Amino acid sequence: QIQGMPYGNCLLLSDGPVNNSTGIPFFYVTRKDNTVTDLLKNPMASLTLPETDGNFCRKNVIDPEDPRCARLTLMGQMVMVPPEEVEFAKQAVFSRHPVVRKWPRSYEWFFMKMNIEHIWLQSWYGEGSAIPVEE
């Protein structure tokens, strides 16, 4: 009933191993997830990340979902990671989320990444601004 409808989902992600963040979100996914099935048909997606480690919110013990805490939205196309990048994607995801090594292999997991086309930074009660992708 929800096929073709936009909806949110929580996917495990990493932008690189702990000491080598790239800013490119990598995901470990399965076609058994409706989100992934939809993305393979229409790869446009957005990813919103709350400010969980920023000085203001942490120092003032403010919930990351409070409007005073920044949120970054990345928009772009989700694509399968090409063979020459799979090893890096594996290191990126597995180093930050070791539990995935125990996930059932029968789900035929694979890696996707977001090719970022737009970045939107929202902070302080709705103020927002576009950030150049190059930055």
The general outline is globular
Number of domains: 1
Helix/strand class: alpha+beta
User: Mind telling me the CATH superfamily name?
Assistant: Electron Transport, Fmn-binding Protein, Chain A
Mean pLDDT: 89
Order of helices and strands: EEHEHEHEE
What profile does the largest beta sheet have? 6 strands, antiparallel
Q: Tell me the quaternary state.
A: single chain
The stretches of 5 or more residues where confidence is low (pLDDT under 50) are: none
CATH topology name? Pnp Oxidase, Chain A
CATH architecture: Roll
Tell me the distance between the termini. Answer: 40 Å
Extended strand count: 6
Classify the helix fraction into a percent range. 10-25%
> What value does the Rg take, in angstroms?
16 Å
Q: Key terms for this structure?
A:
single chain; 135 residues; alpha+beta; Pnp Oxidase, Chain A; globular
Describe this structure in words.
This protein is α+β, with helices and mostly antiparallel strands and 135 residues long. Strand 5 (110-123) and strand 6 form a beta hairpin. It contains 3 helices and 6 strands, in the order ββαβαβαββ. Helices cover 18% and strands 31% of the residues. The termini are far apart. The protein has a single domain, classed as Electron Transport, Fmn-binding Protein, Chain A (Pnp Oxidase, Chain A, Roll), CATH 2.30.110.10. Strands 1, 2, 3, 4, 5 and 6 form a 6-stranded antiparallel β-sheet that branches. The protein has helices at 34-41, 55-59, 86-96; strands at 13-14, 26-29, 44-50, 71-80, 110-123, 127-131. The model has no long low-confidence stretch (mean pLDDT 89). Keywords: Glycoprotein, Secreted, Signal. Belongs to the CREG family. It is found in: Secreted.
